[in-house]
Amino acid sequence: MTGPKTNERPGTRSVLRHYHMSATKARQVLDLIRGEEVQYAADILRSTEREAAEVILKVLTSAVANAVHNDGLDPNELYVAAAYADEGTTMKRWRPRARGRATRIRKRTCHITVIVARLDDERLERRQAVVAAAGQRRAARVASSRGRADQTARATRRAEEARVAAEDEEARLAAEAEATEHDEVEVEAAQEHVAPVAAEVETAAETETDATEADSAELAADEADHTEEKDS
């Protein structure tokens, strides 16, 4: 027994009738999204540079909206169950050719149908497992990046502390050098102030020494004179 026909597939559908495009051109784009999940199919249509892709994206969006509002389905659990294009009305026109003849022009149209349905439980479980694994990998990457950020912050903080400590040490050495220079200046000023006093003291000492020596000589001379008087 054969399966259901394409137009008898269960699901929620949206149909665009009498669009001015050949069914062959529309089928080339419909083949890209058939059987894919709705989000992935929409991404494919957005990245396809064909006129039919823009039109089919509108039909797909309408089918998803019908499934959500009419059937109460979750848009994240839908996939493209069927997508096909039927021949529509062909408008016949004429083009003049040589020797009075005419050539027929066929302006073709098509009916585009997109059917969306809910994913089966097994496929949903596989997708949830893939999403969970991706979330775990992302969490691991975030934790790793946060760890690297913390390491960078700690290294930056240590570098800042080292810089501040170096600046403090430099300021302390500069203060000590300034204090030492100030003490040297005070010592030099004191030496300059003491030098004249020391010179005066030395001069006074020399003068006193000379006076003492003169007094000693005078006393010695007096004693000698007194001794001579006694002897005579």
Report on the structure:
The protein has two domains: 9-95 and 103-119, Ribosomal protein L22/L17 (Ribosomal Protein L22, Chain A, Alpha-Beta Complex), CATH 3.90.470; 121-194. 66% of the residues lie in helices and 17% in strands. It is built from four helices and five strands; from the N terminus they run βαααββββα. The protein has helices spanning 23-33, 38-46, 51-71, 121-231; strands at 12-19, 78-87, 91-96, 102-107, 110-118. A three-stranded antiparallel sheet has the order 1-5-2. It has a two-stranded antiparallel ribbon with strand order 3-4. β3 and β4 form a beta hairpin.
According to CATH, the homologous superfamily of the largest domain is Ribosomal protein L22/L17
Distance between the termini: 183 Å
Task: Give the mean pLDDT.
Answer: 85
DSSP strand tally? 5
Q: How many independent structural domains? A: 2
Derived structural class: alpha+beta
Top keywords for this entry?
4 helices, two-stranded antiparallel sheet, 17% strand, alpha+beta, 232 residues
In short:
The chain has four helices and five strands; from the N terminus they run βαααββββα.
Spell out the blueprint of helices and strands.
Layout: E1 12-19, H1 23-33, H2 38-46, H3 51-71, E2 78-87, E3 91-96, E4 102-107, E5 110-118, H4 121-231
Antiparallel strand pairs: 1-5, 2-5, 3-4
Helix pairs in contact: 2-3
